[in-house]
Structures are given as C-alpha cells and as structure tokens.
Design a protein that fits this description.
single chain, 361 residues, alpha/beta, seven-stranded parallel β-sheet, six-stranded parallel β-sheet, 41% helix
C-alpha cells in the first residue's frame, strides 16, 4: 500500500441496485485514497467496471454465518492499515460495526427508509442493529432528508454525526451514450419502468392497472430482475395485459429515449437512481406519490395515488392525449438534476465528509 489514506468499503454484494451502482462509480473517482472493498457474498454484476485496490469476499452466505464474517473482518484489519470504514446496506453495516476497531472511524450510508425495510421488521435484527449502533459510534449519511429523519426516529438512535448526501447520476456518462434506435411502433404509446423485481417496487400495482387498459394502444416494458420475477410473469400471463418483463439492463440511458413515459410505482424509496437517470434524460415521468419522489422531483413530475388505480389510469390517459405540458416538466427535471444531483455534487460532498472525519479522528 502507498502512503495514501486507506478506506475500507463494505457492502452485502455487488448486484445492480442503487447502493452498488453508487459505490462502483464513486470508487472510480476516489484515486486519492487506497480503496479496499469487502463484500459479504461474491455476486458481481459489474464485471471489469468494478475497480479497487484490494478486494476481499467474506463468503458469509446465510445470516447463520454472521459471527464468522465478523471474525474474518477483524483479522482483515490486522493485515491492512485501515484509516476509515464506510459501510452500505443492513447486513454489511452490522458486520462492520462489530468488527471495526474503536479507533477507526465508521461511516454508514442509509439508502432506504428503515421503517418500511424487511430487515428492520424482524425484532431480533432490529435489536442487533440497536446494540451494534451503541457499540461503535456511527457517522450516518442519509441519501435523502426523509431517509435521514426516519432512521433516527424509527430506531430511536441518538445522532452522533449525521450528513445529508444525495444519490447522483453521472451526467457525462449519459451524454456519451450512443443514440437509441427509433421506436418499433410509433402508434403505440410505450411506458418504461426500471427497478429490481422485489418488494417494495410494487410492479404488481402496474399489472393490475393495465387490466383496465386492454382496449388502449398502451404498452409497458418492465426492466429488472429479482425474486419476484416468476410471480410477476405469471400475473402478466393470467391477466392478459400488454406488459412485458424484459429483464436486467446495464445501461438504462441507452434505452430510455425509446419510450414515451417513465413510470414507477414504488411503495417507498430512499432516493431512486433510475428516476435520476430518467430526469437527466429529460424523460416525462409519472410516479407514485411518496415523500422521496416529491423530495427528488419537486414539481417536475406527475404523481398518482397508490391506493387508487383509477387515479393512475386517468392521469396516464390525459398524458397520452396531451403530451405538451409533461415535456415542459421533463425539461425542468433535467435542469433540477444538473443543479443538484450530479456525480460532481456527490463527490464534493463525500470528499468533504471524509476529510472532516479523518482530521477529527
């Protein structure tokens, strides 16, 4: 290792969720540090795009091996001089808190609303989270105001240090994307939804809504993969709706312009990367009316009621009939990204946090 400070980044695994995409992109920029990445499990959906100075997998597997993962990480600290630990996601954060020596500062990024997270609904995991928080002073970064507020309120933690640092989109990467092919059928109004096929993305809401659109020339393509894929595909087949589940996509920016409208029906979100990408691509958006989307988009999108599929249908049909107003909102959404949510904004904030934490340690 060089004389540069060393940061150990720990995350559950490298799937293509928002937290993982954010980490992979951040690592490319943090060349002033030695970057060690530790994962609990070996899955890597990024291939050569993922780069770091040292990579190590704890091979935890099931949560039953949690104590062994803690012991493995403790031995890892003896091998490398680590100056700072930065954890992402629930299980990796628990391992980091129990394994990281007290003299090494620990930063944790909270990516989602903990009050709606399955991890925090199990009493024993919530208890373990509470115990681990007290064992090691945790510096908390929230990806949105709502995420930050709910973390401390729901878990009744006393803040030690906390920061707001929004998720970002790499605008330069989008600019360099090749132009997409034109739509296959210009007469069909095509919708796109992007997200993992799991709770709380709520794609089943969209499938139910499309039961009322069988006589309309409107089609929905859902991009993503996950534990609910077979269930959702079965719902589509049984409903006979114009919904196609397309599978995982690596570069959303290359396919977004092929569609007329971006939609998302999440029950909750931390701060959606795919929505940021849609905003940056100047896509018209129709989103579920949840606090994080309101914080993210302000008045640059239209919102529908998750408790009322008719509200979604009515707003969608109005958009199909008159697209002008929505395109004006889309232009405003792109400007909102450029003003607040770029990679440059995020890296400036992250570097400031790292510098402050290291100097005060």
């Amino acid at each position: 290792m060089s004389s540069k400070k060393t940061i150990l980044h720990i995350i559950d695994y490298l799937g293509r969720g928002g937290a993982e995409v954010m980490l992979v992109k951040v690592l490319k920029e943090l060349k002033e540090y030695n970057n060690i990445v530790v994962t609990l499990n070996p899955q890597n959906h990024f291939g050569d795009e993922f780069k770091c100075d040292v990579y190590y997998c704890l091979n935890m597997g099931s949560f039953a091996k949690f104590p062994l993962a803690v012991l493995k990480l403790k031995s890892f600290f003896k091998k490398y001089k680590v100056d700072l630990v930065h954890s992402h996601l629930f299980s990796a954060t628990l391992v980091a808190r129990l394994a990281t020596p007290q003299k090494i500062p620990l930063i944790t990024t909270i990516h989602t609303n903990v009050n709606a997270s399955n991890d925090h609904k199990k009493w024993y995991l919530k208890l373990l989270e509470s115990i681990s928080y007290k064992m090691h002073k945790s510096i908390i970064i929230g990806v949105s105001k709502g995420v930050l507020q709910q973390y401390f309120a729901f878990l009744n933690h006393k803040p030690y240090k906390k920061y707001l640092l929004y998720t970002f989109v790499d605008v330069n990467e989008i600019k360099n994307s090749s132009l997409p092919e034109k739509k296959n059928n210009e007469d069909t109004f095509r919708l796109i939804a992007v997200g993992a096929l799991r709770y709380p993305k709520n794609q089943q809401y969209l499938i139910e809504a499309f039961k009322l659109l069988k006589n309309d020339n409107i089609e929905l393509h859902i991009f993503g993969d996950g534990v609910m894929r077979k269930e959702l595909e079965q719902m589509v087949d049984e409903a006979g709706v114009r919904v196609i589940i397309k599978g995982e996509v690596k570069e959303v920016s290359k396919i977004l312009p092929q569609y007329d409208l971006y939609i998302m029906s999440s029950e909750f979100e931390g701060f959606s990367l795919s929505v940021l990408e849609a905003m940056a691509m100047q896509m018209p958006m129709l989103l579920s009316d949840i606090p994080s989307f309101r914080e993210q988009c302000a008045d640059t999108a239209l919102f529908f009621d998750l408790k009322n599929t008719n509200d979604f249908i009515e707003k969608l049909k109005k958009i199909v009939e008159d697209k002008t107003a929505l395109h004006q909102l889309a232009a405003a959404a792109k400007q909102r990204v450029l003003d607040n949510f770029t990679l440059e904004h995020h890296m400036a904030g992250l570097r400031k946090i790292y510098t402050e934490v290291l100097q005060n340690n």
